[in-house]
Amino acid sequence: MTEPKETHAVDLAHFKPETVYTIYIAATPEKVWRALTSAEFSRQYFFGFAIEAELKAGGAFIVRAPDGSEHISGQVIVCEPPYRLTVTWDVNWPGLVDALGRTLVTYEIEPAGDAVRLTMTEAHERPLSDDILSGGRQGWPAILSSLKSVLETGKPLAVKMTPPTRMLAALKAMGIAVP
User: Fold this and answer.
1) Quick check: 45 and 150 in contact, CB under 8 A?
2) Is the model's pLDDT at 8 over the cut of 60?
3) CB 55: neighbour CB atoms within 10 A?
């Protein structure tokens, strides 16, 4: 049985889901949880990015780029191991959060026979255009598919990712400096 939800300092009612993916993985909830919250695992499937999470409500949530820089900074909002994790997911580009609002990412892990159903929801504090959302919609399927591959075969997918040109162009048009 899981403990009651703990939330921390974010009004979840303001966030609307824009992107939802569900994938089935031949693994236990505990293995999926570990993969989602461990730098060692995440580097394998997240194209060299490392997740560092202080697994308690209010704890730090960081995603480090392969060069060690802080690409995503956030906070753990809901932590119910091994079934539910909600974090703020703020990309560290100057002016981005001010222009677009905050993002919440939620992972829900549910047993499904000998597998797990993993649902990832990306929710936003403000309505965003399809051009802006196209970046996550391009990246999340590759990340989650590679996660599945690592857990089931021990090997990540060799996905050729190109920059999300639609999203980057839309951000530039808004005056946001992008790498």
Assistant:
1) yes
2) no
3) 13
Residue with tokens 């990412």: 105
Provide mean pLDDT across the span 149-167.
90
Contact 55, 28 (CB under 8 A): no
The DSSP code for 4 is P
Output the pLDDT for position 18: 78
pLDDT band (50, 70, 90) for residue 112 = very high
Residue 99 backbone dihedrals phi, psi, to 5 degrees: -80, -40
> Cα torsion at 17, 102, 54, 42 (round to 10°)?
60
Q: Where are the beta strands (DSSP E) in 9-159?
A: 16-25, 50-53, 60-64, 70-80, 84-88, 90-91, 103-112, 115-124
